[in-house]
Amino acid sequence: MRPTVARKQDLRSNLAERFREVRAHSRRLAQPLSDADATAQSMPDASPAKWHLAHTTWFFETMVLKPNAAGYQLFDPTFNFLFNSYYETIGERHPRPMRGLLTRPSLERIMDFRAHVDQAMETLLGADLGPEVAALIELGCHHEQQHQELLLTDILHLFAQNPTRPAYRDPEPVAVAPTPGETGWATFDGGIFEIGHDGSGFAFDCEGPRHQVLLQPFRIADRLVTNGEWISFMADGGYRKPLLWLADGWAQILAHRWEAPLYWEQRDGEWWTMTLRGMQPVDPTAPVAHVSYFEADAFASWAGKRLPTEAEWERASAGLPTAGNFAGSGRLRPKPAGTEGGLKQMFGDVWEWTRSPFTPYPGFRPAEGAVGEYNGKFMCGQFVLRGGSCATPEGHTRATYRNFFQPDKRWQFSGLRLAEDA
Ligand SMILES: [Fe+2]
Q1: Distance CA 365, CA 74 (A)
Q2: For the whole model, what pTM was predicted?
Q3: Stretch 18-24: mean pLDDT, rounded?
Q4: Ligand 1 center to residue 10 CA distance, Å?
Q5: How far does the centroid of ligand 1 lie from the alpha carbon of residue 121, in Å?
Q6: Theoretical Cys-Cys bridge with 222: which of 45, 184, 268, 296, CB 3.0 to 4.6 Å?
Q7: By three-state DSSP, how is residue 357 classified?
């Protein structure tokens, strides 16, 4: 059935509303930041906040406005070079590790760039959009939400390098939570199951096609691994026993002298950690965060368990509401598990490392043109994480969502849930 005129207008105003909300949220995230905060880059993996604000705008300018808005005037022709992230089809770009050297353009000029693009987008959103253009705008909104999470994790990393350990948001004492009980286990039968996105509603290309997988019977923990459990692992020499570690992980230990999760430091015999609310005592009841795949895997070996595969995780999460401690809660830190029954913390708190490499699903084809570079070219050397974190925007993730990072990365809100063969 072809959409009626009224239905088309509805879809268009929903998209316009969503565009405005996403764009306004990025401005809110930037509010506590000075131009200096937004300019510095703490490591090649992280980008300055100013760069995130500009790059997400460049995405709309390049992918949506240039090809589709007749007479659109570029805000500044140098910005294509400065704010292209990794699109080879679009051309040469400023080297990623040098993004923090861009003291100009100023934060104010980036905000003017945003306003210029927003205005042109409003005109376009008021016109009769074809489905391809609408899909690109939708992609641009989800893309910007991904960068909203990165903006927070990159600011956390930047502020952690400052000896005064500044807080992005007002420090807030950690609420005292009851110590979570022993881990419970949910058992799942083996068999042939379907995973992947079914094409209804938005999903990134790498989430599909939906396809069959063969699973052996398995058990999955009903909650995330806690800081308290991580302290036991450390106290038992977890970081000093090579037999627990993958060879590549042990090489990281030797090279970087890891002995605790990223951001942890000892003060008078107590563990503290850097958070978006400044330095805080490590809460033993909260989920551990900022651990690499290598650390998650070593912990699982120490516990006599393993990490779940992404198919196991997706099967376990089927039918659960996509609700949890996301960025919208304002907490900006992982939260201890509640006492309710069933699987807890599947969504929000920390991204959960799975033991599955990020590879194409059967039948996967990247899109034509530049947006085809979005995910497909990263399907080598990275592991899938599931579920979203306390820095993920509300409504951004879903059961089929596949996040991915290299196994040594620790600056995201990454943690783990254990699994085992049943
Ligand atoms: Fe991007």
Answers
A1: 32
A2: 0.96
A3: 97
A4: 28
A5: 18
A6: 184
A7: strand
Helical residues (DSSP H) of 161-286, grouped into ranges = 227-235, 247-256
Enter the tokens of residue 397: 């993730």
Q: How far is the CA of 135 from the centre of ligand 1 (A)?
A: 16
Beta bridge partners of 194: 212
Given a cut of 60, whether residue 1 has pLDDT beyond it is no
What pLDDT, on a 0 to 100 scale, did the predictor assign at position 354? Answer: 98
Q: In this structure, are residues 74 and 61 in contact, taking their beta carbons and an 8 Å threshold? A: yes
Least Cα distance to 405 among 262, 277, 285, 306 occurs for: 262
Could you give the domains of the chain? Answer: 3-160 (1.20.120), 185-421 (3.90.1580.10)
Between CA 151 and CA 60 the distance in angstroms is 18
Q: What is the distance of C-alpha 257 from the center of its chain?
A: 26
Separation of alpha carbons 350 and 325, rounded Å? 9
Residues 6+ apart with CB under 8 A from 318: 399
13 token code pair: 């105003």
- For 196-207, the pLDDT digits (tens) are 999 899 999 999
Amino acid (one-letter) located at 58 = W
CA of 143 to the centre of ligand 1 (A): 6
The per-residue pLDDT for range 66-80, each reduced to its tens digit, is: 999 999 999 999 999
